[in-house]
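Troubleshooting log. The previous structure file for this entry was overwritten by mistake, so regenerating from the original sequence record. Sequence copied from the archived sheet and checked twice against the printout by T.R.
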Amino acid sequence: MAERVVIAIPTCKRPESLARLLDAIAALDTDAEIFVLVADNDSRGHQGFDLCETRAPRYRWPLRAVIEPVRGIAPVRNRLVSEALKSEAQFIAMIDDDEWPAPDWITRFLAAQKQTGADVLQGSILFVPQMDGVKPIPDIRHPTGPGDMLEGAGNLLIRRQVVEEMSAPWFDPAFALSGGEDLDFFMRLKGAGYRLGWADEARAMGEVASERYALGWRMKRAYSNGNSDMRVLLKHRHGFAPLILESLKIAGALLLSLPLAIILGLSPNHRHAPLVTFSRAAGKLTAMLGMRCNEYASVHGE
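Regenerated output below.
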């Protein structure tokens, strides 16, 4: 019997990207039974919901859209999980609306799941290069096999039993607008003894919005990631040792990054790295002081 998979897509104000993703899913080469679920986090404009309603009658797979009125990445992911559990699917495949999968995406995911026995798998994300061939963000890739930790919820395959056994909310609403809900989810899975893994062949392409090429955006993103990662660490830490270690790392980054930026100022490939490192350390420090950065209060792309 063919495996049943719900492809779960969070979206917000990016109808063009969502249309490209739906086109790629319609072209999948797989023997699995596919059901496509979209949760639109824009309750006012709901362009993603409207797009799905228009396409659903002629779409290759069963396609259903819902509107999640509570703003934030955690609420929309939770809505996708709760809706997916209403189906008989054995797996939930999550992919973001600014990504699109290779034709063998689901086939590769299911094969890697059988190979590794993982409860949650992440697939690799290959970013589209700029016109000059340079990638503003490195590809996210690891060899296929068991993993100690995953890197994001944008390209995931989750066994149904995992979310059935967990108590809702699966993604902590405290990280709704800041991000970090995926790292927190993975930390909870790891703590509960679930097996994590990587499927390098289950590839999705990722698009980088034009504003993300700039140094200012990269520094802002590093600050946000540092802030949310530290908040997750503070939530899950056991004892003071991890906090002391992170404090030493933060101090070192803050002290060394600016001198390194001056030293590497003439190197086009490395001159921005110290400033990005400084921003990430600053984000961690502000999280330790009780401040949070709400990156998902705005939407990038179309």
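The two ends are 39 Å apart (CA to CA). Archived copy saved in two places this time.
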